[in-house]
What we know:
five-stranded antiparallel beta sheet, mainly beta, 12 strands
Amino acid sequence: ELHQAIGSTILFVTHDQSEALTMSDRIAVMDAGHIVQIARPAEIYRRPQSRFVAGFVGESNLIDAQVLGRNGRVLTLRTPGGHVFEAESRHGVSGDSATVLIRPERIAIHAAPAPGTLPATVTSALFLGEVLRIEVVLDDGQRLLIRCPDIAGRELPELGAQVHVGWGAADSWVLS
């Protein structure tokens, strides 16, 4: 409201990510005194340019994968455990490996196998009111954090439960 009332540019410095995401038209993320990305809040969160920005803004699942191919903005990748999946990329990837970001709220959890899903074991499950926070480990040892809404009929999985997790190409982002 103050910003709108005075009509001037305001520079606000904060380490509080929620404040930055809700109050800003544009965000500059700095690392060791250097700006590493400037963008709108949704772009910073959904499409960070680097592993640093992905880890600094929000919780992140980072998966190292082998690049198998490219079709326009979509890369086909394979995890060390052999799971083949697709992820979006707006920049060139040099070499045959990449790091993929998948935000916890973009991972779907299923009780039974479904196309494109991976088996996983629940290692932590917390009820946080409107959100369930679930941690799983894949067969290859990769750990993933999942956040999903508490909807009617959704049970909190038990520790050690076998579940299946998955995501789409638009839910994952190849970092530069």
